[in-house]
């Protein structure tokens, strides 16, 4: 018999993430006087070393911070190279359709698509600048002190966890770029051509060198110094488009999170180019309906609301610095009511509306002063582009895969643009008071996971751990619906969903359903914390 996890109750501070060593790094920072932001950064930096298939130094970062009075959002996503154009991509790929990926709704993508590997989808890494910018605004310990555990695990090695080893093996099974410019990946990230096994010790001293440079320069070496110059030379030598000028031009952006009401609560996400709007729209649609007691009706409504949210997100979300994104219109109560009216008792294939114009790791932390952090970072799709800078031990992300090649789409690939982004941190409040941070990683699964986690919390009154333990469903495209075996075990559920037109498959691969963490403020003080049971999740506190 499998026993569910129990929620962690912590009186002072807490950390929850997808790897125990990273959670321990964050907790150590809390215990030596750091705040929740310091702890989040130590955790995030350590995750690049202990979970490299899911995130790396060459990835992006998004965060929501509750400072005790209000929420702050940080978009630390990088932009495409200034030299990159749609015409260059079409020429390089021969205009041949690539395999559609989750960022664009999987099989719904049509026509040529951005490639997933090699230099073409590489965008400027935003994570190192994001670490620095979060620290500059909120941190209290010296920036370099937050790198201690990560550097140690990279230099001396660490035993690979069971979940990470499985993710590593799945990632290596995917096609990789070939050629002289891509041999460094195998040297750094394979053991005799394979993934490390659970418990096998893995070292990356080159990444330790990079982390030291970032730590002691406040990330300047990454964007304007030694690392930037090495990236420039490597790209020029191997057919890349990234330049030292692109790195020097990078900036993070502080943004105001956006929200919808859901049954007396406010659910917060970051504005575009992330896909958080899909989750908010789905919850806004569901908020106008009574909670369904019937499990078939409940899942059906959630799935159909998520489809509506994705239809709009894939049609309208783009870099707001380069295109007009109707964020306010997509969340307008009148527009949500109109979308709600499209729901029926049958599985549908919704299209985007016309509103009024206006591979990933997640962690959450809290401290004794009430500061809370919701942070997510990623290279995307299992080791990102698989382009590795020789001598520096990290892979560059492939976030450019999220661009479109349709010249009329607001998210069309182009120079110095941020692509549609899958990674989204979440936060829950009630009447303006903080409940806490949450997130569910996993590409196209993320908004769906947010909807299911919020519903389990608000509708069912579950604590964070119980909400994360709850069985999940996953919609990818069309009328195909995957459900976990524990959900399928509910009497009549699968048959009821099939009767409504859903093409239901029971799937037992945990990674399909995403990995999440959540942390709520306890009414009597302290914290109630949950960690993902489907992977090596860890919730620690003191």
TrEMBL record:
Q: What domain of life does the UniProt record list for this protein's source?
A: Bacteria
GO molecular function terms here? hydrolase activity
The name on file for this protein is: Gamma-glutamyltranspeptidase / glutathione hydrolase
Query: Would the keyword Cell wall biogenesis/degradation turn up in this protein's UniProt record?
Result: no
Record-linked Gene3D superfamilies: 1.10.246.130, 3.60.20.40
Pfam families in the cross-refs: G_glu_transpept (PF01019)
Keywords from the UniProt entry: Hydrolase
Translocase is among the record's keywords: no
Instruction: Enumerate the InterPro entries for this protein.
Output: GGT-like_enzyme, GGT_lsub, GGT_ssub_C, Ntn_hydrolases_N
């Amino acid at each position: 018999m499998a026993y569910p996890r129990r929620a962690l109750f912590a009186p002072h501070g807490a950390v929850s993430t997808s790897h125990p060593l990273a959670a321990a790094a964050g907790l150590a920072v809390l215990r030596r006087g750091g705040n929740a932001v310091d702890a989040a950064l130590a955790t995030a930096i350590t995750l690049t070393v202990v979970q490299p298939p899911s995130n790396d130094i060459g990835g992006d970062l998004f965060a929501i911070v509750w400072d005790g009075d209000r929420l702050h959002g940080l978009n630390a996503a990088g932009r495409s190279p200034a030299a990159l154009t749609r015409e260059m991509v079409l020429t390089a790929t021969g205009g041949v359709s690539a395999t559609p990926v989750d960022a664009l709704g999987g099989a719904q993508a049509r026509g040529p698509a951005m490639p997933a590997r090699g230099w073409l989808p590489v965008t400027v890494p935003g994570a190192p600048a994001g670490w620095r910018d979060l620290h500059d605004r909120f941190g209290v310990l010296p920036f370099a002190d937050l790198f201690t555990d990560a550097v140690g695990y990279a230099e001396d090695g660490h035993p690979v966890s069971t979940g990470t080893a499985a993710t590593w093996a799945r990632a290596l099974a995917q096609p990789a770029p070939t050629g002289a410019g891509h041999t460094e990946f195998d040297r750094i990230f394979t053991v005799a051509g394979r993934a490390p096994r659970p418990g096998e010790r893995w070292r990356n001293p080159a990444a330790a060198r990079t982390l030291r440079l970032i730590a002691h320069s406040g990330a300047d070496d990454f964007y304007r110094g030694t690392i930037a110059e090495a990236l420039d030379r490597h790209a020029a030598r191997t057919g890349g488009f990234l330049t030292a000028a692109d790195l020097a031009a990078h900036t993070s952006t502080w943004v105001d999170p956006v929200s919808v009401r859901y049954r007396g609560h406010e659910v917060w996400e970051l504005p575009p180019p992330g896909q958080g709007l899909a989750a908010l729209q789905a919850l806004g649609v569901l908020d106008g309906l009574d909670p369904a007691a019937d499990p078939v009706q409940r899942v059906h409504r959630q799935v159909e609301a998520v489809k509506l949210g994705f239809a709009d997100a894939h049609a309208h979300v783009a870099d707001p610095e380069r295109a007009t994104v109707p964020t306010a219109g997509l969340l307008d109560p009148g527009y949500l009511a109109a979308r709600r009216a499209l729901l029926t008792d049958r599985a549908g294939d919704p299209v985007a509306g016309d509103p009024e114009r206006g591979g990933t790791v997640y962690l959450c932390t809290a401290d004794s002063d009430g500061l809370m952090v919701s942070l997510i970072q990623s290279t995307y799709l299992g080791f990102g582009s698989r382009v590795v800078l020789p001598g520096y031990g990290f892979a560059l992300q492939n976030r450019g895969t999220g661009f479109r090649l349709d010249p009329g789409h607001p998210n069309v690939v182009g120079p110095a643009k941020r692509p549609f982004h899958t990674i989204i941190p979440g936060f829950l409040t009630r009447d303006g008071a903080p409940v806490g941070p949450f997130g569910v990683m996993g590409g196209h699964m993320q908004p769906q996971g947010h909807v299911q986690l919020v519903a389990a919390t608000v509708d069912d009154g579950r604590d964070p751990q119980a909400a994360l333990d709850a069985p999940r469903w996953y919609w990818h495209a069309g009328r195909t619906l995957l459900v976990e075996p524990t959900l399928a075990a509910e009497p009549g559920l699968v048959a009821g969903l099939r009767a409504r037109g859903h093409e239901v498959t029971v799937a037992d691969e945990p990674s399909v359903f995403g990995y999440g963490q959540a942390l709520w403020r306890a009414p009597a003080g302290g914290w109630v914390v949950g960690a993902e049971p489907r992977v090596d999740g860890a919730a620690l506190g003191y």
